[in-house]
Amino acid sequence: MSDHSVNEATETFVGYRNLLFTVAYEMLGSAADAEDVLQETWLRWVEVDLEQVQDQRAYLVRITTRQSLNRLRTMTRRKEAYVGPWLPEPLLTSPDVARDVELAESVSMALMLVLETLSPTERAVFVLREVFDVGYDEIAAAVDKSPAAVRQIAHRARRHVDARRPRTVVSASRTQAALESFQRALATGDIQGLLDVLAPEVVLMTDGGGVKQAARRPVVGADKVARYIVGGSAGVTLTGEPTVVNGSPGLVLRVDGETDGVIAIRFEDDRIVGLYYVRNPEKLTRVGSETPLTLR
Q1: pLDDT in tens, 241-254
Q2: Which of 58, 100, 142, 296 is the most exposed place for a label (fewest CB within 10 A)?
Q3: CA angle at 139 for the pair 40 and 99, rounded to the nearest 5°
């Protein structure tokens, strides 16, 4: 490949990098694996004769999708051997992501967990069609299916996700007030303060990866969640730094000044209905070391 072609390939790849990363991450739930997929995509992309490519964006998405599918099947085996509950690797995202309602929902912890219940092909089709509005013909080329089959898969995946996805319009001001109340209650170990901001049916999921302590099953109910949080922080100084996690409000939690985990929070009105607490150190390597992601 000539220097000119390499420069053109590089410029095109960099221009679509955020998009390709988001496609891979939404399919895999792992930023580290998504980065590996992008590396594999790049290695294949620089070997392509660009003069033969009519739509470079579609071609790159196709490569990324195929590499993600290959890795997703391998990850399925890893997750089967995972110790305790598995949560997606948290992404600290820019405020721009939070303002893009559709994008924020698509990368939210709640929806990412719903996507985990799809087959690899269903997940690829759903992400490409529903999140990025890729045409059926392009998706068919990416997943090696006919356009007719892709339409059926898309319909099935959409119906599956719609039956399980949380749909809530939340006031930004009320969410901010609830987040501040939750933050204060965490820092002071105030059980009543937690109960005031937790919905009765709140669910807490924790991911320690077998390295850090975590509940082996979801903790359900305001009283149980509040006592679990306060009990787990007894004897230490627990602080929470507000951030945006996967397009939604969240906190970087520190114990005695050291990063302990990232918690993504799902609100309904001014109450917390979902807490997703990632403590596995392998999923926290990007926290504090990178600029919040834009994703598109």
Answers
A1: 999 999 889 999 99
A2: 296
A3: 80
